[in-house]
Amino acid sequence: MKKITPIWLGYIWMAAMAAADPRLPISELGEGHHLPGVSESNDTFALDEIDAPALVLIVFDLYCPTCQKSAGNIKRLAETIQESTPSIAVLGIGSGDTPFEAKKFRDKFKLPIPCVSDREESVSRQYGVKRTPSLIVLDRADSGAPFTEIYRNEGYIGREHIEAVMALVEERK
């Protein structure tokens, strides 16, 4: 029985970690960047606290060559969403990146969105991200309801992905 107990404890711990909504640091959003519904009086926030009908997550890694090649299209997508549907939230997640690296990616490619580090890759694990860049669109049926995934692309983010995401975003105006 002693050999089984540590295994079961491991399963319980893994299930608890998977169910926990990872907290991200508000201080990393960057000057001039905010997310609807996220109070800046707190130190951290969870993705479900974002008050938006949909959330576009862009998961990147500063040192990923494909992320760097996709950066122009990421910027174009973010600008298009902000211009056409400002109620939709867009957030960059630096998978495995430090706060410095996430900010460096945002600044280097002049991304008009908040970018936060996911050093421990907790958000990446929560959403099953296997590679970067990943483009994930989350939808919310009602205000306050949890987000559900409606679109995913892992790998290079091209024009066809921008068009697919914009079609989904337009439906949520």
What does this molecule look like?
With 173 residues, the chain is α/β, with parallel strands linked by helices. It has a single domain, classed as Glutaredoxin (3-Layer(aba) Sandwich). The chain has 5 helices and 7 strands; from the N terminus they run H-E-E-E-H-E-H-E-H-E-E-H. The strands form 2 sheets. Strands 5-4-3-6-7 form a 5-stranded mixed sheet. The chain has a two-stranded antiparallel ribbon with strand order 1-2. Helix 3 (99-108) links the parallel strand 4 and strand 5. Helix 2 runs parallel beside helix 5 (159-171). The radius of gyration is 17 Å and the shape is globular. The protein starts with a helix and ends with a helix. Residues 8-19 have low confidence and may be disordered.
Helices and strands, in N-to-C order? HEEEHEHEHEEH
CATH class assignment:
Alpha Beta
How can the largest sheet be summarized?
A: 5 strands, mixed
Number of domains: 1
CATH topology: Glutaredoxin
Q: Report the span from N to C terminus.
A: 57 Å
Average pLDDT: 88
Shape annotation = globular
Share of helix, binned:
25-40%
Strand-pairing-aware structural class: alpha/beta
Poorly predicted runs are 8-19
| Total of helices | 5
Spatial ordering of strands, largest sheet:
5-4-3-6-7
**Strand runs, count:** 7
Instruction: Tell me the name of the CATH homologous superfamily.
Output: Glutaredoxin
How much of the sequence is in beta strands? 15-25%
Radius of gyration: 17 Å
| Architecture (CATH level 2) name | 3-Layer(aba) Sandwich
